Amino acid sequence: MDNRDNNLEKDKKQSKPEVLIVGTFHFTKGGDLVDSSTAVDIQSDEEQIKELVSILAQFSPSALAVEITKDRNEALNKEYQEYLKYGDNFERNEVHQVMFRLGKQLGHSNIHALDWMESVGNRGIGDVAEWAKEYQKDKFDSVMKVFNDNPIRSDNSILDNLQLINDPTYQNREHRGYMNLAQIGEGEEYVGIDWLRWWYQRNLTLYKNVVDIIHSGNEKVLLLIGAAHVYLLKQFIEESGEANVIIFNDFLNDI
């Protein structure tokens, strides 16, 4: 391939929409396997949150997307409009603390809810854990060893913690934890896979909703999502050819 072909490929890549995926830990305790909410103190860390917002603003996104179920999109944006009007109705979660501030700074009129959490008649993760602890404790322990290897520390800055969980080495290791989870089960009883089919459907739904935002005319989408979703969302978006994916750490290195 000569230089002209290289330039054509570069121009073609740059002409695609861009999705900046920012993997986060949740600022409030949720349903994650590992709780990292103690790593944030909203009052003492407010300046760090503002610094993060200023950094993300440099991407100049045309759309903001968050890990809120899509059926709550209207309620989410009602909360956002109240924030724009009154400016002090923050909740502790990262959507309010980061994305509401960012949306206001950039002049966005709305924020997109993307998530899906419906049941598909599968086992819950708690059911998988109970079965594994009784019948395949060694495999269960190996899975939990991966998920409990959490790099987030309370004495780190928010930005440092985000860089740690967006690092490709960490992302690859955590994804292997899900692949280990798929091995839980005996014979034709695919216990771990029964939950993972829901996990993959959830991430495929997130991917589809991101693509819908792109197709509605947005060239630059910023997605703030739990870090566990980053590996699959990056894979799905890249494989679709719909957009170029930018990972948070790469974005930091380029600004």
TrEMBL record:
<dbReference type="InterPro" id="IPR043749">
    <property type="entry name" value="DUF5694"/>
</dbReference>
<protein>
    <submittedName>
        <fullName>DUF5694 domain-containing protein</fullName>
    </submittedName>
</protein>
<dbReference type="Pfam" id="PF18950">
    <property type="entry name" value="DUF5694"/>
</dbReference>
